Amino acid sequence: xxxxxxxxxxxxxxxxxxxxxxxxxxxxxxxxxxxxxxxxxxxxxxxxxxxxxxxxxxxxxxxxxxxxxxxxxxxxxxxxxxxxxxxxxxxxxxxxxxxxxxxxxxxxxxxxxxxxxxxxxxxxxxxxxxxxxxxxxxxxxxxxxxxxxxxxxxxxxxxxxxxxxxxxxxxxxxxxxxxxxxxxxxxxxxxxxxxxxxxxxxxxxxxxxxxxxxxxxxxxxxxxxxxxxxxxxxxxxxxxxxxxxxxxxxxxxxxxxxxxxxxxxxxxxxxxxxxxxxxxxxxxxxxxxxxxxxxxxxxxxxxxxxxxxxxxxxxxxxxxxxxxxxxxxxxxxxxxxxxxxxxxxxxxxxxxxxxxxxxxxxxxxxxxxxxxxxxxxxxxxxxxxxxxxxxxxxxxxxxxxxxxxxxxxxxxxxxxxxxxxxxxxxxxxxxxxxxxxxxxxxxxxxxxxxxxxxxxxxxxxxxxxxxxxxxxxxxxxxxxxxxxxxxxxxxxxxxxxxxxxxxxxxxxxxxxxxxxxxxxxxxxxxxxxxxxxxxxxxxxxxxxxxxxxxxxxxxxxxxxxxxxxxxxxxxxxxxxxxxxxxxxxxxxxxxxxxxxxxxxxxxxxxxxxxxxxxxxxxxxxxxxxxxxxxxxxxxxxxxxxxxxxxxxxxxxxxxxxxxxxxxxxxxxxxxxxxxxxxxxxxxxxxxxxxxxxxxxxxxxxxxxxxxxxxxxxxxxxxxxxxxxxxxxxxxxxxxxxxxxxxxxxxxxxxxxxxxxxxxxxxxxxxxxxxxxxxxxxxxxxxxxxxxxxxxxxxxxxxxxxxxxxxxxxxxxxxxxxxxxxxxxxxxxxxxxxxxxxxxxxxxxxxxxxxxxxxxxxxxxxxxxxxxxxxxxxxxxxxxxxxxxx
Amino acid sequence: xxxxxxxxxxxxxxxxxxxxxxxxxxxxxxxxxxxxxxxxxxxxxxxxxxxxxxxxxxxxxxxxxxxxxxxxxxxxxxxxxxxxxxxxxxxxxxxxxxxxxxxxxxxxxxxxx
Lengths: 885, 113
Description:
The structure holds two protein chains of two kinds.
Chain A: H1 2-15, H2 17-41, H3 46-57, H4 60-71, H5 74-92, H6 94-123, E1 134-141, E2 146-147, E3 149-150, H7 151-160, E4 164-178, E5 184-191, H8 195-199, E6 205-206, E7 221-224, H9 226-233, E8 243-246, E9 249-256, E10 277-280, E11 293-301, H10 307-324, H11 326-331, E12 333-339, H12 340-344, H13 349-390, H14 395-431, H15 446-472, H16 476-482, H17 485-525, E13 535-541, H18 550-566, E14 570-576, E15 589-594, E16 605-613, H19 616-620, E17 624-627, H20 632-637, E18 641-645, H21 646-652, E19 662-666, E20 672-681, E21 695-700, E22 708-715, H22 719-733, E23 740-744, H23 745-788, H24 790-798, H25 803-832, H26 848-874, H27 878-883
Parallel strand pairs in A: 5-10, 7-9, 16-21, 18-20
Antiparallel strand pairs in A: 1-2, 1-11, 1-12, 3-11, 4-5, 4-8, 4-11, 6-9, 7-10, 8-9, 13-22, 13-23, 14-16, 14-22, 15-16, 15-19, 17-20, 18-21, 19-20
Helix pairs in contact in A: 2-3, 5-14, 6-13, 6-14, 6-15, 13-15, 13-17, 13-23, 14-15, 17-23, 17-25, 17-26, 18-22, 23-24, 23-25, 23-26, 25-26
Chain B: E1 6-7, H1 12-24, E2 27-28, H2 29-39, E3 44-45, H3 51-60, E4 64-70, E5 76-82, H4 84-112
Parallel strand pairs in B: 1-3
Antiparallel strand pairs in B: 2-5, 4-5
């Protein structure tokens, strides 16, 4: 308490220095006056009296000094002094200061930008209540990896688990809002009644679902997203309790979600972050077929339960289920719990960590550069510092002064970095890949600010310490005598070490960036099994009262396809249930097996299930490798036929042709069917550009009717008129049909490359910055050494050295640290690039060509940076050089 | 011969100042210095300047407060006065001083015997 009070008073004393100083002076003057008056009374003359008073009082200045020490905070006072001095020093050399601040701003700014992404994506908890206890619960079928769960599975989980507080599930669907105004397509989430309350504390309006609303066989209540409520219903607060028409049926609005609500689910789970409306599951989940897997399940762990415990419990539940139900044992069902946050960032974490490592190297290089600048300036300041030491400044005090200068410098750099960082953030946001979309905050938060500040101070100490220690370690007599010239020669060594370090670190960045750029290049080269150029895609949903019968849906798409194909400039038109690389609709997949295969082989080929109309392959430019394509007659006669891709063909019939063989399938509405393979198409990459996740089976639309379809149009018409044409043709057939999801096929492919583009672009930028910084470093040291050796060069020239010899002398001396740096960098790159393995495609870490290219590039750029000062040395006028002092 | 003037013992200056203010009421720095010299009959050598950092220290701890005023002979001066917590502090310090003095006295007495 007392200490706090003293500190408070001292702080006040520090800030009110000037006023208090005046007060102190007044007080002491009054004391002296009183003393003098007393002396006069005793009979002294006024002059005598004043002298005696001063004697009696003691030293006025000493009193003031010790009073000041007591008044303020000596540490702060000294810091204030140092800071003011530092500002003067920096202001005196605007060129040096600007270069140093700019270098640091780039180094720190890059770190700020990447850290703000790392912070919001990896460190910050998901915006859900108690989100640390949320897990995704995946079903594992044999070796097939993560899959959704069936209704009964979810029910059994709820009944049997003791370590989970609750389980919820969602299935992303599509629907249409009709009634007043334009019909509107909506992204619809079918959810368990507790799902929304697991992810949000309370709705913006109304209420969440209650358990009684689930399993009523036709949904009666709906919760809207804030966005839909605003743009379709004008944010009408009285909408709650009113009825709207969804898919042609009346349904009551019971709630509106908060504006910032997003569903952040792992990539590949087919649950888009933005949903327009939610309805409870209509079916009784317990009575669903056990092998109909579509529910994406999340669970909330009880307090204090760790993932391994939960996993053990899930495994024992899976064992029970396998022994109790044949469907589960046939599927070889397993269960897996993964933290929701960890699963969401699973794919972006390695890239972010690599980038974070990269920017720290950039900062190190920036620091080395500034340290070099400081070193060359320290030589200029040698005299000033020596003088101070000679006048009795303690070494610690001088070091503190120099460190204050460098920390001030780096804090100024940090401030500039915040500006630069906010610009860099815009770049990052425009490049961010899937998995970050739902996460990245656009503004700097307090932790980011704190990070930048800490980094600035640390950087200031890092690059300031060595020069400060070096400058203050001196021999007074020698250095006063030499005037700083002899010192310079000895100082070349730390400067060379810094240059070598810069080159080595730049090498690592360059090699890493090279590998990542080659990854992007190989992704651009890769053939996805189709040609995305000139293909436009739109989505259409045939749901609602008009399309109750499959015939009406089939009729609609066949007519639309026929009419579009007849239009001028249109090459081909296809209709499909799933577009490649589109993750917004649930993917359908299951087991398929050759007719008559023994039971043991029935679970071997898992494939994606696609429902198409003839013309799809042509419109995408897919390649038929055997047999024939579907034709319109097949559609008309609704023949039991299928086309499979080479992946399925190779696995189902490893030897011999697949064409003409019979295959056991499921028609997409969970009805078994046996179809004849009429053709084999080359695999169309659908989930990743590089991995064949699953093969594909294509059925004719009439045999596997779906509500949500996409139309693919290949044409040479510009996209705007094409979209107008498509809208017109759709309206001709059904004026209430919303057209949505208008996107060129290229965009889908680009989305699949986004993550690689993100990392390689950023790594490329970092490498360019690193090389530029290293170059300025090399150039600076070479120029400086020419400057230092001007006199010597003059002597050599006067003694007859030819320009070529001078040139070689400087080049040799300046390139030595570059060469050492390249050698060290080579080793570092070989050691460090394997950390990138996870991110590389089509090139392996430590690729000799890439690394050799990086070394060559650095070497030649370094040579260029030395060339200019070396040339300058050869052009010195010997007379002027000799006089140079 | 006059006995040699003693330095003010470290830490006792606070006690002396507090006691002075307690006895005489609000007083300026010069007055305090005069009083100390008067009471000690010039036995204590007080460098009057050292009074000021001590006054500041006491004020920072909240034991005394200060206010500008006018002295008897019409000079602007800063007057110090004891606060309530200063009075309490004076009591504790007096007590601990007496205890200390007693111990020292006994110690010296015992040695003498």
